[in-house]
Design brief:
- By secondary structure, the chain is mostly helical.
- The protein is built from 17 helices and 2 strands.
- The chain has a two-stranded antiparallel sheet with strand order 1-2.
- The protein is globular and about 70 Å long.
- The protein starts with a helix and ends with a helix.
Length: 316
């Protein structure tokens, strides 16, 4: 038992990182899963929650069911994500509100380096692969330029928001939190977590579960049948999303709602940031944090058996 806990402790740690990233609009937990080497293991585990798995469960073959879905891996990851969201939500929100420039700097470097490395995973460089990459960039740019909509706070829409947001969260480069911002439900869901609104949380999580099991099958097939095109598509998503984590942003004017201020922020150069806000662009700390983000990704990439090792280590 202790050996199992030790074996899966790194997965829980990665879940904590994923949960922290998912709180930040513009950053995807899928990106963290990819750079920590567990992305394909996660997708494969999720898509294994299928009819065969439920047959095993209904037959009370609990052990066989658990092994089929790689339950130890999924549970360890889920524990980390929940720990992160419950314990770090207020800290991340504080950093986002008071030190967003430095927070975004780190993630800008992290996402940029990740996109380059993921693009390098393509085994061939065909026209279709490059078109997939370009499409990914355009889709991400389109999503990040959308305006928010007014939506109801009914149970069915919270459920639907869970499906849509979790689909985005498992795609590197597409931020589930940003999707919630567009849907007008980012603050609503965070407040539900803060206030332990069990009913709202349960409805949202159920939607997330439905979205995960459905979309993971599609993504698994894409990775298997169109590996190179999918890799460059995901890299494109990440490159296109960089506009939302650009360190020097001018918040939207006359926006009493902090959600809308974040959505309508304008990216500027460091010099223009100082001119327009009379605030310190913190150029040196920003560059250092960007380099730190890049360096972290490179260290993870150079770790032996990064992707295949993860798949083998957590397959039992």
């Amino acid at each position: 038992m202790l050996n199992r806990v030790i074996q899966y402790a790194p997965v829980t740690a990665k879940g904590i990182l994923m949960g922290a990233a998912d709180i930040i609009p513009g950053v995807s937990g899928g990106t963290i899963a990819f750079i920590t080497g567990i992305y394909e293991a996660l997708i494969n585990a999720l898509q294994s929650i299928n009819g065969l798995a439920f047959k095993k469960l209904f037959r009370m073959e609990v052990r066989s069911f658990w092994q089929h879905i790689n339950g130890n891996f999924l549970l360890s990851l889920l524990i980390g994500i929940v720990i992160s969201i419950v314990t770090l939500a207020n800290t991340i929100i504080y950093l986002l509100e008071h030190h967003s420039m430095l927070l975004f700097s780190f993630f800008f470097g992290l996402i940029l380096a990740s996109a380059v490395i993921i693009a390098g995973k393509a085994r061939t460089h065909s026209v279709s692969s490059y078109l997939s990459g370009a499409a990914g960039i355009l889709v991400a740019l389109l999503i990040t330029s959308l305006s928010p909509v007014t939506t109801p706070e009914t149970w069915w829409f919270i459920f639907l928001s869970g499906i849509i947001a979790i689909t985005a969260m498992i795609l590197p480069g597409i931020s589930g939190s940003f999707i919630l911002l567009l849907l007008g439900k980012y603050t609503y869901i965070l407040n539900a977590v803060r206030e332990f609104d069990i009913i709202t949380i349960a409805i949202f999580v159920t939607g997330c579960a439905v979205g995960l099991t459905g979309f993971s099958r599609i993504l698994s097939k894409l990775l298997h049948n169109f590996h190179d095109q999918t890799m460059l598509l995901l890299a494109g998503f990440m490159l296109g999303s960089l506009t939302k984590v650009w360190p020097w942003q001018i918040p939207g004017q006359a926006m009493a709602d902090s959600e809308k201020a974040l959505l309508f922020s304008k990216n500027v150069l460091p010099g223009n940031f100082h001119t327009m806000t009379n605030a310190d662009p913190q150029l040196l700390p920003v560059i250092l944090l960007m380099v730190t983000g890049v360096g972290l990704v490179l260290i993870l990439e150079l770790t032996a058996g990064r992707k295949q090792g993860a798949l083998k280590q957590y397959s039992s």
